[in-house]
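Supplementary notes (optional reading)

For those who missed the lab, this is the record we used. Protein: Dephospho-CoA kinase. Length: 366 residues.
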Amino acid sequence: MLRVGLTGGIGAGKSAVARRLAEHGAVIIDADLLAREVVEPGTDGLAEIVEVFGAGVLTAEGTLDRPALGARVFGDESARRRLEKIIHPRVRERAAELTRSAAPGSIVVNDVPLLVEAGLASSYHLVIVVLADREVRLERLTRLRGMTPAEAAARIDAQTDDAGRRAAADVLLINDDDLDSLRSGVDGVWYARLVEFERNLRSGRSAVRSLDSRIVESDPEWPLAAARLIARLRHGLGDRFDIQHVGPTAVPGPPARDVIDLMIGVRTLDEADGLAGRLGELGFPVRLGEWSDRAGQHGGAWPKRLHGCADPGYRVDLHLRVAGSPGWRLALLLRDYLRAVPAAVGRADVAQAADDWAASTGWQPS
């Protein structure tokens, strides 16, 4: 199933996005609701909160007194972190249970207010971020939630800034206008991105062929997209493999094919073949066929494995090359050389020039 993370700052409109996705058939897992569920009377979560913060955080009926607890942790970083260590693991466990119980083929949307702050973005196939202008959010919080301007500002400032959210976003929804505009944006994401992504993930195919790409102006989004995809791969594969952004989009400045080239260094091609199933689950299905590199002056063809991306929002070539092979070395060398010597972009003898540069500078693969 397709696992989607949904987040946004307080007052940005995340809940409205979740409701619209639910209308389309998404399975919504609301972290706020789960955070209440795991501290209901009789749970070990509530028992641990009382043990740490005292009986003063309970009402006369024995339920959690949220305003009292909030007063204890607001503005106290260490107290807040102690509370998070109690609640967050239980919420993640419960969310995992609900995800496993969803029907095959579901699009499961995890509505998580602190997704970025908790470092959870890489655990999803795709992350949707809802943003709104600060003044719009302040007005919503005071008008719709009854907060004072000072309370609203404090709640906004207690969360991560929009720059951090933008960096985590595979999909960005701006909610500065009316509700109809937001719903229209959600509809577009559902039909153009999520439905196709889920279908591709289930059938084990890439969304688009990288060969269909074209030369475009350098895009500052390329390294951010590569970082998100690499984080997703590292989360799914663990720390055993070196994963890097290579190819033209890894060199800032010059025009390039609109393709994110990623590379995993493996010990053998058998090891690469053993990763095919897991990479498919992560959204990077194998591209069938025989693939190899022509490694410059070294001559010969050096076999590799190639995967694509099931997400229609990205054009990706994921190369699995044997670490230390000429093809692996050349991919890293060309990237580093062109970063260091931008004027060499487009040279016919760029591979030879890169080798000469490596010899003169003492460059070694990172």
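If you only remember one thing from this example: Residues 154 and 354 are 53 Å apart (CA to CA).
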